[in-house]
């Protein structure tokens, strides 16, 4: 880390976490340690109640059918912790909270008639097919009532935060960096109209991404007839419902943005979603494992949970409420007590162990360098997160996120949304948790860097993408000449072991 940056952040004098983390030296000491000098990387105690959250058997990860009816049992009085977690896990995979979705008829059409393009369960876009779904839906799409009486599907937590690991196992809480969210949205919205000959002014890259689907519709009269039937059902179903189908269209500029996003990245305040902040703020999908609870936040002097890339969401409960609100759901139907099983389940998630960790000597040297090279000054919080926020100009990374939810930087949220109690518009950036990095392929807050080796410039200088919101510049301490290539490799070994 450059010495000038260290001086600028001197107010962040490293804390002796061994003295403040309640787990250290107690009967609840975690079962693995990164380094005696870096206790913030300790694993948390197991709170899973025997649930399978990481495994190669997808049915086992889905608890072999035990998720079905769990919330009914919990709300009927079976409030033991395991039933509560089973309910929360069901919500994680299958609850839509009445958020905005797409007509089920169009989804059914694409999965049935365009399977060669979209793959089983939209696997061509990185989603994971649900082995229990009779209609071959993916995990992460579930029924919603956003289209009135018309069947529709909306995204759940699992669409973005359930993934397949490099070793082939599945992990709940893993950021699905294989998910082509932008191209998936284009595939859902464009081909139905283009396949019926309804043309318009579209972005070239967006058109190119869906052209094979359109070609297959136009070349096969059976597919064309099936699409016409689906559109007729949609039109009939929406008649008199008060739902405006044009509200789910995209502008040419919106299409260009969706087409440009890397897998595992998105802007979730953009059309056709209900909340639109009129700013392009790309962020990578983050992991949901090992979030700090209130006692750990207090012990480590965190301002609050610091969720979201701007670090402004004060608690996990506020984050879940925001998911409902910004997704166009019905917040009044989801008070905290109904969201509590989901929150408790997310708190129980743990990082997956790397089955092929780097050599122990490299990991130990990397842990020592993490402290001596200055990394610990910004990543001294739980699991390597930060305890403070940082200005974009200090970190040097793309600053488009500064305007998230506040395009004119006046400190007032936009677009009909609201912040939860204790939440704040920070206009700054947080340091993320650094555990489970071996599972990921997107780095920096906007996902512009594709590997730890690229982040540490071991493959040469980064391409230096300058396009706003997509820029890969900044966080140059990992490329600093003060760190030899050997040092950087050791740091990567340490990070890949956690």
Summarize the SSE layout with pairings.
Layout: H1 3-8, H2 17-20, E1 54-55, H3 58-61, H4 70-75, H5 81-94, E2 102-103, H6 104-113, H7 115-118, E3 128-129, E4 138-139, E5 141-144, E6 152-155, E7 162-164, E8 170-172, H8 181-189, H9 191-194, H10 204-219, H11 221-238, H12 252-260, E9 265-266, E10 283-284, H13 294-300, H14 316-326, H15 336-347, H16 360-372, H17 392-395, H18 452-455, H19 485-497
Key terms:
19 helices; 3-stranded antiparallel sheet; globular; single chain; mainly alpha; 498 residues; 10 strands
Structural overview:
The longest helix has 18 residues, at 221-238. α6 (104-113) runs antiparallel to α11 (221-238) and α10 crosses α12 (252-260). The two termini are 21 Å apart. The strands form four sheets. Strands 1-8-7 form a three-stranded antiparallel sheet. Strands 2-6-5 form a three-stranded antiparallel sheet. It contains 19 helices and ten strands. A hairpin with an 8-residue loop joins β3 and β4. The chain has helices at residues 3-8, 17-20, 58-61, 70-75, 81-94, 104-113, 115-118, 181-189, 191-194, 204-219, 221-238, 252-260, 294-300, 316-326, 336-347, 360-372, 392-395, 452-455, 485-497, and strands at residues 54-55, 102-103, 128-129, 138-139, 141-144, 152-155, 162-164, 170-172, 265-266, 283-284. By secondary structure, the chain is mainly α. It is globular and about 65 Å long.
């Amino acid at each position: 880390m450059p010495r000038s940056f260290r001086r600028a952040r001197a107010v962040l004098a490293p804390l002796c976490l061994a003295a403040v983390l309640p787990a250290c030296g107690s009967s609840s000491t975690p079962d693995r340690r990164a380094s005696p000098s870096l206790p913030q990387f300790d694993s948390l105690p197991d709170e899973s109640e025997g649930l399978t959250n990481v495994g190669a058997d997808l049915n086992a990860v889905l608890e072999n059918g035990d998720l079905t009816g769990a919330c009914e049992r919990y709300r009927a009085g079976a409030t033991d912790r395991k039933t509560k977690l089973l309910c929360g896990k069901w919500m994680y995979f299958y609850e839509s909270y009445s958020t905005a979705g797409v007509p089920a008829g169009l989804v059914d059409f694409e999965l049935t008639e365009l399977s060669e393009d979209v793959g089983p369960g939209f696997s061509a876009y990185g989603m994971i097919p649900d082995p229990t779904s009779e209609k071959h839906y993916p995990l992460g799409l579930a029924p919603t009532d956003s289209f009135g009486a018309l069947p529709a599907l909306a995204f759940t937590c699992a669409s973005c935060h359930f993934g397949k690991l490099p070793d082939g196992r599945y992990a709940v809480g893993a950021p699905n960096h294989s998910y082509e969210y932008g191209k998936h949205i284009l595939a859902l919205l464009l081909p139905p109209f283009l396949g019926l000959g309804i043309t318009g002014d579209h972005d070239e890259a967006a058109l190119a991404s869906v052209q094979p689907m359109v070609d297959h519709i136009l070349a096969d009269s059976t597919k064309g007839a099936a699409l016409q039937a689906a559109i007729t059902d949609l039109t009939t179903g929406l008649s008199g419902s008060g739902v405006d189908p044009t509200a789910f269209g995209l502008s040419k500029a919106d299409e260009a943005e969706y087409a440009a996003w890397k897998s595992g990245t998105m802007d979730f305040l953009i059309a056709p979603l209900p909340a639109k902040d009129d700013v392009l703020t790309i962020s990578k999908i983050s992991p949901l494992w090992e979030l700090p609870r209130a006692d750990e936040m207090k012990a480590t002097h965190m301002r609050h949970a610091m969720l979201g890339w701007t670090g402004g969401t004060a608690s996990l409960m506020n984050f879940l409420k925001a998911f409902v609100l910004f997704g166009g759901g019905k917040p009044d139907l989801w008070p905290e007590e109904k969201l509590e099983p989901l929150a408790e389940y997310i708190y129980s998630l743990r990082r997956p162990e790397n089955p092929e960790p780097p050599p122990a000597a490299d990991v130990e040297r990397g842990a020592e360098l993490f402290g001596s090279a200055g990394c610990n000054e910004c990543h001294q919080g739980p699991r390597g997160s930060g305890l403070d926020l940082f200005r974009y100009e200090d970190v040097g990374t793309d600053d488009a996120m500064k305007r998230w939810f506040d395009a004119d930087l006046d400190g007032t949220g936009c677009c009909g949304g609201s912040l939860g109690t204790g939440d704040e518009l920070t206009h700054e950036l947080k340091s993320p948790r650094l555990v489970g990095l071996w599972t990921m392929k997107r780095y920096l807050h906007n996902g512009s860097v594709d590997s730890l080796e690229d982040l540490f410039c071991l493959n040469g200088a980064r391409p230096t993408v300058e396009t706003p919101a997509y820029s890969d510049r900044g966080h140059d301490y990992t490329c600093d000449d003060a760190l030899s290539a050997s040092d950087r490799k050791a740091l990567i070994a340490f990070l890949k072991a956690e």
